[in-house]
């Protein structure tokens, strides 16, 4: 879009002018007009580089001259039928438009004219948050008690139940990588979520039917005789579960970035709102988990499995309906091409130039202007000295011009494109540490529940299902969020100088350390439980509360810190993919946990021994398993400290003057 500013009138100290022009939108030309008024200084030039870059130049002969020139480059959604005032406060504006995407302009003391595209008034993000709450109830309603469903309804052994649940949960966090590639490359986040929900809903219906129809599940046990499920019954159940896994994968990969798309990173006000959105998004995950692990689990075990799953199905249907209703107010970001292709281009170009020597000065490497990046909705990245061999992809040679008129991206890449791959390589050790962490964390919904079933399930006069203790863990996370915001941040801010109190890497490190303590507490409890049971006095399930509380502390520090870290460090073209890397670490952690459990069972049952994890835990040594996981967490913590200490943060170039943040 190109606009011309026409002089309208002039007072002693203020200039009012009309902002008008036309531009192509698809195959149509549209006109737009806007009236601005601002205090103006003579002979000044105002320059603004944001997602919507704008240049305003005032001739030195002003006010004698009655011409004012402007160039506006249009990217994304914008409303042009609003009038507002320019003042020193960004919120000084009057909106006469029914559309919500309105420019807010401020004239700062540094002589720059700042255009801020106003995001939605929390309506669009609120729909995303509501979607997450409802989807969380559905997903955790299945996940929280799946081990029990396998063992009590489908009559599987404890080890098989834990393995099947871990594999399914791992798949749920593996499919987001596929969803991220589809969203970033082909469909965009909106359509990926829409189609994924249409897969999610039939899966929930199928799982519900397996609990509702008698011929889709094995008959109840008669004494010690528990008939196994038939092949057809297993097929129906697992088809439903894996439809849920693929549907939730598309939702998980796109929902958080889609909500963040409703804000502008360059707008200070929106950055604060976006930070609040991350916290609220995680809170919605917690709320969904809390409702599922308390209300839904209670319904499943005390009323009906079918009724419990029906509640989750209803939540997915409501989320889908609300998402459709919110379509008119969403800001949609078009896919920016395959991130894997950009990575492959850097690898191919660097291999082709393997014989070239990397220049000592990064300024001689190929890069385009910030304006060209703004046109694509991207930002330039500053050059770093790590992985210097990849810089060969940005070395300019005589053969880089394919036909003399256009560049071959498989021969020459920009510094920003090279830095994108460097970011992925720097994230890799942190990501691997996350895989190990989530393998240990998987005890939360596997061995912790089995341990609870081996204890006295009464607390006072109440009978507590072991899976319902997850509600205590979730409630602890919510309380910790308040304590952290009101107490911990102000205290740590004094010592760290960081407005957030602790950096993202520091918070994640605290979570890694607390996982060591969690497994140690669980091991001590299990040893005490075995001793108490052998004396004929089973321990109350309330003794599990301390390990759930320490686990909640670990989860709180790790999940928010790591989620923000992956999103913040992700290149602009890889937001969905890097967010899915966080989810992928949870997935592979579940698979690794399954491998650990299977390996422990195999190694400890040799020679006819019952092993550490027999069907009757009173004959095993689950405490040895917990001590092993505590040792693994300690090694993981040491490795993480080394990686975090040497990590180089991403630097974004604001303008061509190489101002970075």
Automatic annotation (TrEMBL):
It is found in: Membrane. InterPro entries: MFS_trans_sf (IPR036259), POT_fam (IPR000109). Gene3D superfamilies: MFS general substrate transporter like domains (1.20.1250.20). The chain crosses the membrane at residues 122-142, 162-183, 190-215, 235-256, 277-299, 311-333, 427-449, 469-489, 510-527, 547-567, 579-604, 624-643. The keyword Transmembrane applies. GO terms for cellular component: membrane. Keywords: Membrane, Transmembrane, Transmembrane helix. It is a multi-pass membrane protein. The keyword Transmembrane helix applies. GO terms for molecular function: transmembrane transporter activity. Belongs to the major facilitator superfamily. Proton-dependent oligopeptide transporter (POT/PTR) (TC 2.A.17) family. This is Peptide transporter PTR2. The gene is PTR2_6.
